[in-house]
Amino acid sequence: MLHATDPSLLDVSAVVAHAQVLINAQVASLANLQTSGIYSHAASSPFCSMLGVCPPPPPLCSAFGIGCPAQHSGHPDLASALSSAYHGALEQHYYSTTAAQAFALVGAGDALSQAIERRGGGGGEYDPARTVRMAVLGLLIGGLGTACWLRHLEAALPGHDSAARVLQKAALDACVWAPLANSGYLVLTPLLEGRRPEEVASMVRARFVPVMRTELCTFFPYNLVSFSAVPPLLRPFSTGFVSMCFAVYISWITHRREAMTTREQQQAEATG
């Protein structure tokens, strides 16, 4: 008497083939769901690790949370949508995007600088023309200029495989681009304000070395971090943001020293 469980009655190869067909069908179905957008993030599914069909997250997602697929929910994720749109703008319109963000950052930095100056009693009414001038300079130098330089530098020395490569990039930025950018600001800012060329030349001679000294103390350490950890697409934004904060700080320090000097002169005149 033979039973249904007798191995002689089972075609093992047929069972294995049938199981393989079922597994392949499930894998194909999951892949279709991922590409059709039903699963906005494949990693949220348990089949991701089991079947090995999850796409890797974008590099910007892993580093800074930019361009990450949104988790599937009933409501759109506004932050993810905005970050994805910004990432797409950088990839498709690199120079126009970096120019626009530099215009906004430098303009905001100048507005904040003027607010600090007025609060300290060293400035008059807010000057929108000054903010526009600085924003335009930021667009040209900090936006287009810095973006072009960083892209050229990354093409010449790609990656961050070693400390020597990162140090090379930081040194080149400090020795090549920093003097050009700072000279541009030092020359064009007073010229746009109506200063005479000989007066501008005198100001540049007096301020270039202190500005470069402060530049090296601030941006050289920042560049070591930037060239090590910040993706190339995001470097113009992070550099522009640091530049904005640095400009506000320098404006505050300069105004405070000028105010202290004025008070000292007033006290000397009163006691003299």
Automatic annotation (TrEMBL):
Keyword match tRNA-binding: no
Name by which UniProt lists this protein: Peroxisomal membrane protein MPV17
TM helices/strands, residue ranges: 233-253
Family from the record: Belongs to the peroxisomal membrane protein PXMP2/4 family.
Primary location: membrane
Topology relative to the membrane: Multi-pass membrane protein
Subcellular location: Membrane
GO CC, alphabetical: cytoplasm; membrane
Alphabetic keyword roster: Membrane, Transmembrane, Transmembrane helix
InterPro entries per record: Mpv17_PMP22 (IPR007248)
The UniProt record lists the keyword Membrane: yes
